[in-house]
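Lecture 7 notes: from sequence to structure.
We start with the chain below.
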Amino acid sequence: MCGGSELEDLEELVKKAAMKADQAEIFYLVKTSTSFRGIADKINFSRSSFSKGYALRVIKDGKMGVSYFYNPSEFDRALNTAIYASRFAEKLGIQFPLKKAFTEVKGVYDKKLLKKDENELSDCIVQMIDTVKRKGAMPIRCGAGRNESFFCMLNSEGGEFKSKRTGFSAHSTARFKDTAQTSDKSSHSFFNPVELAEKSADLALAFAEGKPTSGEFDIVIPPTLVANFLRLEPFASFSGEKAFRKDSYFSGKKGKKVADDQLNVYDDPTIPNGMGSVKCDDEGVAANRKALIRNGILNILLYNLETARRAKTKTTGSGFRNSVSHPLGSGPTNLVITSKNITHLDDFKGIMVNSLIAMQNLNQRNGNFSCSIASGAFFNGEIGKPIKGCSLVGNFFDILKNVSLADDEQVYHKYYGPSWTFRGKIV
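Predicted structure tokens for the same chain:
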């Protein structure tokens, strides 16, 4: 996907940048993707795309400047822009990493996936539509797509890494009467998306025609909903930069209790086949397993090179980019949740909240939330009478301090853990 000549060209660009700056770094990304989407009972959208880009960082007089470009012919302009930008940056004395060998992560690239042609991908859509209809529900939308990415970083200090990844994702949304349910999955390898269609239809049938309820209940939320909570809150709160700016609930709480005594939260980029697994971050710092919360105590926050210097600490190898033109941030890779405080779902009596609406309204500073229940039901070892037209209200960080983990260990995207149970309020 990226030939030797391109890598040689990158080396030349880094050398050229280092002649005008004290240090230089180039991050290069090239990505191809193919996707299909179905609306109602037919395929109505297909797309193939190719993109590549470069992020340039320079350090001059201890200050960092950043710019982006999409063609090597734009390099001179980008270099001048980065050097000019460095004049207005804070002098932090950042040093780019030296060359280091990294331990490869298994299972993040699958050649077999790339052999799936467009006909096979479009057949996935047809099969999902037919499955939802066969189950007695109405197909609303579904999709499937694959991608291949190549990442490369080179710096003037000898630091470098190359990495390639594949990805396959699919989703299915089914409706029955007044309820629509979505099931989705991502992997580095191909999987049969029909299972998602079956699940979305089964959930739509199970949670249809819910009625409002209110009161305090024992609540269970499945891994899909747990993962959505974690995307909103811990991914932000574990940022060392946010904590340094006092824009995080975890600001000033390192070494203090923030969760149940039995709860452990790990950031683990070394998991084979993990969607967040990497051998190093985008700055070329080795990735490793870290205990973010250990026995309820906040143990560590996540930093990249720049935010670590601001906080007068060391990088945790957590510097990542959403794209070449997006500022480099810091955050978790795969989140692994464990606890000795276990709830057996066969013995659980309460309410299952399966999905919520407007989760983005969760206050990421203090954790307060009030979200409408899109689907839920009374639960007594199995799904019972559905509920709807009411809201789950509470505080995410209070839940952390009182949570019990269920005995249904699962993997959902970058979340490794079971359902959560806690005492909650529905209005």
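Points to note: The first helix runs from residue 4 to 18. The chain has a mean pLDDT of 93.
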